[in-house]
C-alpha cells in the first residue's frame, strides 16, 4: 500500500510491542474473512524489482487460508484471483459474515527507500487485540514497525474485529528481496495465522 496515500488516513497513534505487552483475544470466533489487497486493475505498490503488491498479497492470503483451514477455521476470501474488488464490497463481505474477524493483507511502499519492516493497523479498541497479536508474531519474522491506528475504509466500515497487515516494503531492496522468497512469504503467513489463533482464545 502506498505510504503517501496512507499518510492522509492515519492517526499518530503507534504502539511498539514488547514481550511484556498485554493483549487478550477478541472473543471466540471460528470464521476468518481474508482480504487480499488490491487486484485486477489495482496493482497496488510496485516493487523496486518491478513486482506488484497485488500478486504477493494474494499469494500470502492463500497461504494463510490453507493454514487456517488446516487448524479448523472457516475462511471467506474477498478475492480468490487477480480481479478488482471495491473497498465497500470487501467491508460488506465481512459485515454479513457472522462470528468472524477480518484480516486484510498488503505489502507496503514509501518514498524513502530505507523504510522497512512490518506493521499492523486497527481502527477501534475491540480490534486492537487482533492487530497486536498478529504484529507480535510478525515481529519475530521481520522488522517491527508496531501497531498503528488508521481510518482505512475496510477498517472503519467494518462491524467485525479487523486488522490490516503490511508485510514489508516493496520499495526497500532488502524487504523486496526477502518477499520474493516463497519460504519468507510462508513464514509471514504462519505468523499471521499464529496471531489470529491467539486472538480466538
Structural topology:
Blueprint (H helix, E strand, L loop, with lengths): L2 H5 L2 E6 L15 E6 L16 H18 L3 E4 L9 H9 L4 E9 L9 E5 L5 H11 L5 E7 L2 H4 L5 E8 L3 H7 L2 H18 L2
Parallel strand pairs: 2-3, 2-4, 4-7, 5-6
Antiparallel strand pairs: 1-6, 5-7
Helix pairs in contact: 2-7, 4-7
Please explain how this structure is put together.
This protein has helices at 3-7, 53-70, 87-95, 128-138, 153-156, 173-179, 182-199; strands spanning 10-15, 31-36, 74-77, 100-108, 118-122, 144-150, 162-169. With 201 residues, it is of the alpha/beta class. It has a single domain, classed as Aminopeptidase (3-Layer(aba) Sandwich), CATH 3.40.630. It has a seven-stranded mixed beta sheet with strand order 1-6-5-7-4-2-3, with helices on both faces. The protein is globular. It starts with a helix and ends with a helix. The relative contact order is 0.23.
Please tell me the CATH architecture by its name. 3-Layer(aba) Sandwich
Alpha-beta classification: alpha/beta
Sum up the overall morphology in one term.
globular
Task: Give average pLDDT, whole number.
Answer: 91
* Uncertain parts: 3-12, 18-22
How far apart lie the N and C ends? Answer: 30 Å
Percentage of residues in DSSP E strands: 15-25%
Count of individual beta strands: 7
Identify the strand order in the major beta sheet.
1-6-5-7-4-2-3
The CATH topology turns out to be Aminopeptidase
Overall radius of gyration: 15 Å
CATH superfamily: Zn-dependent exopeptidases
Tally of distinct domains: 1
CATH class: Alpha Beta
**H/E topology pattern:** HEEHEHEEHEHEHH
Percent of residues in helical segments?
A: 25-40%
With helices defined by DSSP (H or I, 4 residues minimum), what is the helix count?
7
Major sheet characteristics = 7 strands, mixed
